[in-house]
């Protein structure tokens, strides 16, 4: 996979992970309620769920490209429309997307369970991956390249949420995030709209 293409993938994954939402709020709640370890457990288990979705999406898309090219083209255009819709929604969120993370008493086991369930139980996550990864997968893509895509999504997701948990456990990161949630939403919206336009203009590979 060309480095420039990987950078595009990494940038979208990073902005998706950083965008305020239920996953981030979950990590914040467990960190506030149980300290550093529960926050990290929630982050890592969420990353495993993300990795599983990415794995299924990459392999499923590869088979779809080979067997049903017309259907895959439709999926690509549908994915572009979905990315554009997410971008517009993020831009319109403004301060309404501010984080609401109420503290609660929690344990590492509860945090790990909740992190996995939030990832696997979020239908928007699988739709996002299908929309996103369809722009990077090719029929002749090697096993190593597919593994890079999966690991990139998983490591960036886990790395961001672990960073949040570690930082929040000994500093005042939460008020900073709350005050700037609307800017994160706006940056995410612009990036998603740009990717959607790039898809309409032509394939990324």
Give a structural overview.
- By secondary structure, this protein is an all-alpha fold.
- The chain has one domain.
- Helix content is 80%, strand content 0%.
- The chain contains eight helices and no strands.
- It starts with a helix and ends with a helix.
Please sum up the structure shown.
The chain is mainly α.
Which features characterize this protein?
globular; mainly alpha; 205 residues; 80% helix; 8 helices
- The tally of strands reads 0
Structural class: mainly alpha
Query: What distance lies between the first and last C-alpha atoms, to the nearest angstrom?
Result: 9 Å
Count of separate DSSP helical elements = 8
Low-confidence stretches: none
Organism: Halomonas organivorans
Transmembrane segments: 41-65, 117-137, 143-163, 183-201
Membrane topology: Multi-pass membrane protein
Subcellular location: Cell membrane
Write the topology of this structure.
Elements: H1 3-18, H2 22-34, H3 36-67, H4 69-93, H5 108-120, H6 123-133, H7 143-168, H8 173-201
Helix pairs in contact: 1-7, 1-8, 2-3, 2-5, 2-7, 3-4, 3-5, 3-6, 3-7, 4-6, 4-8
